[in-house]
Amino acid sequence: MKSSLRLAAFALASAASLSLFAQQNKPAKPTGPWMNTSLSPDERADLVMKQMTLDEKIALIHGEGMPTDDPVTSQNADSNRGVGYDIGVPRLGIPGIDMSDAAYGVRSSGVNGRYSTALPADVSAAASWDTDAAYQYGALIGRELRAQGFNMTLGGGVDITREPRNGRTFEYLGEDPILAGTLVAQLIQGTQSAHIIGDIKHYAFNDQESGRTSVNVNIDHRAAHESDLLAFEIGVEKGHPAAVMCSYNRVNGDYSCENKWLLTDVLKDDWKFPGFVLSDWGGTHSTEKASAAGLDNEEPGWFFYSDKYKEAVQAGRIPMSELDDHVHRILRSMFAAGVIDYPRQRSVVDPFSGFEISRKIEEGGIVLLKNEHNALPLDAGTIHSIAVIGAHSDVGMISGGGSAQVDPIGGNAISAPGKGATHWQEQIWFPTSPLKAIRKRAPNATVTFDPGIDPASAAAAAKNADVAIVFGYQWESEGMDLPSLALPKYKNGDTEVDQNAVIAAVAAANPHTVVVLETGSPVTMPWVSAPAAILEAWYGGSDGADALGNVLFGSVNPSGKLPNTFPLSDDDLPHPTLIKPTITHFSGPVSPETWAKGLPPFQVHYDEGVEVGYKWYDAQHKHVLFPFGYGLSYTTFGYSGLHVATSSNPDDTVKVTFTLANTGWRAGKEIAEVYAALPASAQEPPKRLVGFAKVDLAPKEKKQVTVEIERKYLSIWDEAKNEWSLVPGEYTILVGGSSDKLPLKETVSLR
Ligand code: BGC
After folding, report:
1. What is the pLDDT of residue 654?
2. pTM here?
């Protein structure tokens, strides 16, 4: 799909001397009245626009191909060879917009012979529930984008986990809109602090990869606002991203990138988003319809938003004011993000600080799921032997694939050491070795490795050791969904490796078995009762092994909590079977004309509505394996003294105050979670997360904590009035350390 679009696009490109191109299109030094920094971004944009020709305006509303793997053309010669490039207004000194994917680090650095830090997967940052960590996550990406010569990120994924088998779950921030929205806002602010155009994506309901360019999602407006859209609303309102990427799928009949309800009514009118909307890569399907609906920028090429657009303007089918609005939004966002005042300039990335930030975020995101008889932390002084088993844990840790993929420095740990560049949907293992990290922390113990291919051999290795640490992994990537939440079986030569069988055999052989999971989505665990301890490490990033080592041996006390429910079985999901296209939509490349019409839709009905994640299991009274918000620590915490303060002023927050105590002898961080049960007349699921705080406590320390709850978070979406509305009545506020364990409770009356 992409390549045929690109080919069509490049057929239009003229061939001439590239160095001459680069010369011609290199922006002049920015001078002009718009360089007056005391003016607002909007005023500055207007001043530029006064001098722009129609052709210059059109040139700004589309991309110039995918410079990473497409030929250099007159228009993209000045780009940094990322995935997208808009030419800017070279004559007036307005620079190009140079885009890179950057979900958990800057993509394609290897191919450019440069370095980029891989942070832990976004879902790991979500598991930290740490707003400061989310800011640092974004800020590191922003700094490295700048250092590599880019000025726009394509990160900021926040589609909530409605379908946990979605192959991009690792790129997102969990199943709760308030948690995900709060964190993505911080991530965007962090990225934009480096004068990078920030992005939030994929707007909206891009909840599965199967048939993503044809699926039509059906959802009512109330459920839409209260679930998936709320994450974007918070992200836009608090993160102020300069850009929003509309998604590939259809929503209630229209493609997202030509969906007036999503782009204009909700995003631009209700949420007052002043920035620009760009299409996902090849996600534009029309000229007039998309433009009128609110799509400002076609990416990565110019099939609909170049000649066809100009013709439509000249023929009066698109009013000049509509084009001007798109151009204004792009320019004002460039001024607001600072990419004009602080031009792109390459510099050297600081890999050491990158490693440290990446490691710390992973340390905060690892979730301790089980710890019988304090099996963890391990005491290096008393352990004589450790068997490390499975998942290439001798050499590396798995990463998430697709457009999020970061090229590992040093190459793929299991297959191509030394090679920087990665390839689409290739499983990439970062060269961060848990085995070495464990050996380093237990220098006097015998630490053996078994590949975990044969259950009998793994069990024998485990039996001979004081402690067995067995790894299981689940690889995810854009462009595919997981067949199920079971730990996948995989091929090793001719042998099929059954990870569940290996883990069960190891745990049966050694009562002191620790299971370490490297997954993007929840997994089912038929062996859950057997091992002494279970850690969810997600995708650990560049320095994942050290983070894991620190948690295993207790120099870091785990503090992550699940941002996604782990169900008992796929059968418990709202859609036990993932809904896939039933017909073969196409085979081989799709012509631009076919693409323009859009592929035939298949329907997915979100009948579960607002009941996403824990709201579904609560409402349906289903037991789960590990609940949302759950995670253990090496210490214990106590909650007491709840007080909920309300005010009659509807602009005031509801203040929830309580005492949090570290009741153990080890310092630790606790994520305190605040939920609300709405009045019955609101007809909502039993409870929703409305706030949280991550609190650092010394041994035996107590702190008074206040979490302020916005009234919107206690409201429902009133479809008739098209606004948030607080249902008058009794609200029960619940506080505790997990969605299933909320010891504090107070009922207040709100109106
Ligand atoms: C993905 C986007 C990505 C874009 C550019 C698309 O296939 O859905 O998330 O930013 O490609 O690589």
Report:
1. 98
2. 0.95
Out of 130, 176, 280, 407, pick the active-site residue: 280
Structure-token pair, residue 747: 């009922």
Cα of 739 to ligand 1 centre, how many Å?
A: 33
Residue 40 has pLDDT above 60, yes or no: yes
Residues contacting residue 699 through CB under 8 Å, at least 6 positions apart: 635, 662, 664, 665, 666, 667
The string of pLDDT tens digits covering residues 373-425 is 999 999 999 999 999 999 999 999 999 999 999 998 888 999 866 666 788 88
Ligand 1 centroid, distance to 403 Cα (angstroms): 6
Which residues are 472's β-sheet partners?
517
- CB atoms closer than 10 angstroms to residue 292: 17
Identity of the amino acid at 725: S
Question: CA 565 to CA 556: how far, in whole Å?
Answer: 24
How close is the Cα of 299 to the center of ligand 1, in Å? 10
Instruction: Encode pLDDT of 153-166 as tens digits.
Output: 999 999 999 999 99
| Choices 3.30.360.10, 2.60.40.10, 3.40.720.10, 2.30.130.40: CATH for 635-750 | 2.60.40.10
Residues 77-93, buried b or exposed e (16+ Cβ, 10 A)?
A: bbbbbbbbbbbbbbebb
User: Which residue type occupies 276?
Assistant: F
Using alpha carbons, select from 417, 539, 415 the residue that is nearest to residue 471. 539
Question: Running DSSP on this structure, what letter comes out for residue 741?
Answer: B
Q: Is pLDDT at 19 greater than 60 in this prediction?
A: no
Counted residue by residue, the chain has a size of: 751
The correct CATH number of 2-110+121-337 out of 3.40.50.720, 1.20.120.80, 3.20.20.300, 3.30.830.10 is: 3.20.20.300
With a Cβ cut-off of 6 Å, ligand 1 is lined by 83, 101, 154, 201, 280-281, 403, 478
Token pair for residue 126?
A: 């979500």
* Domain 352-570 listed as CATH 3.40.50.1700: yes
Place of tokens 């979605």: 166
Count the Cβ atoms, other than its own, within 10 Å of residue 508: 16
Closest among 625, 517, 518 to 572, alpha carbons compared: 625
Distance, CA 280 to ligand 1 centroid (Å)?
Answer: 6
Q: Which two tokens stand for residue 206?
A: 């891009």
Give the C-alpha separation, 1 to 213, whole Å.
10
8 A C-beta contact, residue 200 and residue 184: yes
A 10 A CB-CB count for 705 gives 18
Average pLDDT over residues 58-79: 90
Q: Write out the two tokens for 607.
A: 């009948």
Out of 256, 281, 424, 425, give the residue to mutate to test ligand 1, the one with the largest number of ligand atoms within 8 Å of its CB.
Answer: 281
Three-state secondary-structure class, residue 450: strand
The values of phi and psi at residue 592, to 5°, are -55, -30
Domain map (residue ranges) of the chain: 2-110+121-337, 352-570, 635-750
**Best mutation site among 81, 106, 152, 154 for ligand 1 pocket (most ligand atoms within 8 Å of CB):** 154
The per-residue pLDDT of the chain, averaged, comes to 93
In this prediction, residues 300-312 reach a mean pLDDT of 96
Strand intervals (E) in 145-282: 152-153, 199-203, 215-218, 243-246, 250-251, 254-255, 276-279
Report the nearest atom of ligand 1 relative to the CA of 101.
10
Is pLDDT above 80 for 584?
no
Q: How far apart are CA 180 and CA 256, in angstroms?
A: 21
Number of Cβ within a 10 Å radius of residue 649: 8
Residue range 120-166, pLDDT digits in tens: 999 999 999 999 999 999 999 999 999 999 999 999 999 999 999 99
Asked whether residue 82 carries a pLDDT value surpassing 60, the answer given is yes
pLDDT of res. 307? 97
| 78 tagged catalytic | no
pLDDT in tens, 167-206: 999 999 999 999 999 999 999 999 999 999 999 999 999 9
